[in-house]
Amino acid sequence: xxxxxxxxxxxxxxxxxxxxxxxxxxxxxxxxxxxxxxxxxxxxxxxxxxxxxxxxxxxxxxxxxxxxxxxxxxxxxxxxxxxxxxxxxxxxxxxxxxxxxxxxxxxxxxxxxxxxxxxxxxxxxxxxxxxxxxxxxxxxxxxxxxxxxxxxxxxxxxxxxxxxxxxxxxxxxxxxxxxxxxxxxxxxxxxxxxxxxxxxxxxxxxxxxxxxxxxxxxxxxxxxxxxxxxxxxxxxxxxxxxxxxxxxxxxxxxxxxxxxxxxxxxxxxxxxxxxxxxxxxxxxxxxxxxxxxxxxxxx
Length: 299
Prior knowledge:
- Belongs to the CRISPR-associated endonuclease Cas1 family.
- The chain is an alpha/beta fold and 299 residues long.
- It has helices at residues 53-61, 88-97, 100-121, 126-135, 146-157, 174-195, 214-219, 224-236, 244-252, 267-282, and strands at 4-8, 14-18, 21-26, 29-35, 39-44, 50-51, 65-69, 75-79, 257-260, 263-266, 293-294.
- The protein has two domains: 4-79, CATH 3.100.10.20; 88-294, CRISPR-associated endonuclease Cas1, C-terminal domain (Four Helix Bundle (Hemerythrin (Met), subunit A), Up-down Bundle), CATH 1.20.120.920.
- Strands 1-5-7-8 form a four-stranded mixed beta sheet, sandwiched between helices. A four-stranded mixed beta sheet has the order 4-3-2-6. The protein has a three-stranded antiparallel beta sheet with strand order 10-9-11, covered by helices on one side.
- α3 (100-121) runs parallel beside α5 and α6 runs antiparallel to α8.
- The relative contact order is 0.13.
């Protein structure tokens, strides 16, 4: 089922539940409603937004997520379901007991995918060609850190030469747009992980003890170029910071058509198949992990 994304940023809005519908009101007047089971993600970026307990409860019970943005308009926190999967204990055990060779093989595929998709963002440029050469140099576990070499090459060529850009997680302008897009997709992946019965904190490569979304950060790697390409297009269209148009474009990625395992579908649907295939890799049912990628029909 195609899930809906609700963004609240321009005006104060009150969210509540009524007869199974998420209702949105302003100044006491109803401005819209969405069936709760159709809600995938709610992004709140207006400081005067108010909610009832019931609407937050029902959104997560139905498998949705709520992303809260801070003063800088960046996602500051996310509310996701704790999970009601009937095999949650078994799934968590699969994560804990996964062998090192299995985890290293999965990481190899994720990084190969990330570099390949990054090369497509730069298309036929010299940097894009050099990135494609690096793909097959990624070995199990990426012991020689080809990922870092590819990242340096990618960011140096990401924008036209007359624009100096440095990837900085705490930076503004383009960095802010990138961080916003990553956070939205990270929340989507986290929701799919929990829905499948897995624990987001247990990663196969990322393992920082203070990070509750290590697995999300693993699985987002080959999807990052989707955001990178979108932000690059926004830049070329004149958007340099988070505004209404840029948020609309980045949130639109959740509904965009992607290709996975030979089939096409919206990212917010395909991501569940992606997580399920990851689980099959953990269990040894398959050694191949595909990932949602930009559909060939995209510009």
